[in-house]
């Protein structure tokens, strides 16, 4: 094999060989989908620290990408730790509740929602540190459990049945999907929660705007791995780098870390602390609603989305969700999702009274050819809300948002 080195960069022409070319149309989605984990979604706990630098055969970035894409591992189980640090202000749970509502596209439990609905429940992964148990046995049987202090949330796919169970509220969510309908199943997930899912989104970014190198080796969950480093070539992105630890034997991503361009702790860090590639026990995927549990069927849930939320359309294509949905301004890592609320924007400044002053304290006033507005920032995803009700959001700097708003005039 050709040797790997820090300057062994894979370009679009190399990376889009058969097996990766199909991802070209989706590359714009990385700033939205990956960072939307918020999109897993980290300065993770020491348990995820690399425990050694194994001596492995040389490999190029292109070969490592191909190994990851071609991985046919169908069975695994283990424990994953995931942390996110967007730097959001503590609003007493208000921010988390808003994020859940936005991600699910539903009006909330007060209008027929369920505490076990995964489209809202899994958005809790966008902040803090969480421990997950995962099990996979082919395309039709998966289980993900989020372990909490005194409760557990589980999402189970067993054939055509998808079950969500929240032990804290004793509520059950049930949906039926066609066997092997992978994309339909993902609609019930909404948030990438494992290193593999996060890596799949990141690999969509491999094009001329991206540098991909092999950054040495590591040991994760007791397994030897190569480290794939993905970095934006474009200026204006808030993404500094994405590091993916790929299992040397199976090609399965074991750890995913996204660091911001501004430096400091990682924004998203997810990795296995224990993993097995043996077949999980069949009983792992059995589920019977507990006695007395409230059961909500998917078609009864108010405002159920018809497509996986958080996905932006390709630049220049029809807005997601039809007319009035978001469009995309720009390409690659500088892609910005834009949509018109049809309202007058958020009340900010003196014209908004006390509420305007409160909201203004969290944002920066900006002006441009688009008019005036306020930019609200996190360590990764920033949003510009104009006074005429338009919203521009993406993993880009404040200056890039203003340019996008000007270009969309």
What does this protein look like?
The model is unreliable at 1-50, 90-111, 183-190, 302-323 and 349-356 (pLDDT under 50). This protein has 2 domains: 12-300, outer membrane lipoprotein receptor (LolB), chain A (Clam), CATH 2.50.20.10; 327-407, no CATH class. Helix content is 16%, strand content 31%. The protein has 9 helices and 18 strands. The strands form 2 sheets. It has a 12-stranded mixed sheet with strand order 7-8-9-10-11-1-2-3-4-5-6-12, covered by helices on one side. It is α+β, with helices and mostly antiparallel strands. It is globular, with a radius of gyration of 21 Å.
Q: What's the helix and strand layout?
A:
Elements: H1 12-15, H2 29-33, H3 61-70, E1 75-84, H4 94-104, H5 118-121, E2 128-137, E3 141-147, E4 152-158, E5 161-166, E6 171-176, H6 182-187, H7 195-203, E7 210-220, E8 223-232, E9 239-247, E10 253-260, E11 268-276, E12 294-297, E13 327-329, E14 336-340, H8 353-360, E15 363-368, E16 371-376, E17 382-386, E18 390-394, H9 398-407
Parallel strand pairs: 6-12
Antiparallel strand pairs: 1-2, 1-11, 2-3, 3-4, 4-5, 5-6, 7-8, 8-9, 9-10, 10-11, 13-14, 14-18, 15-16, 16-17, 17-18
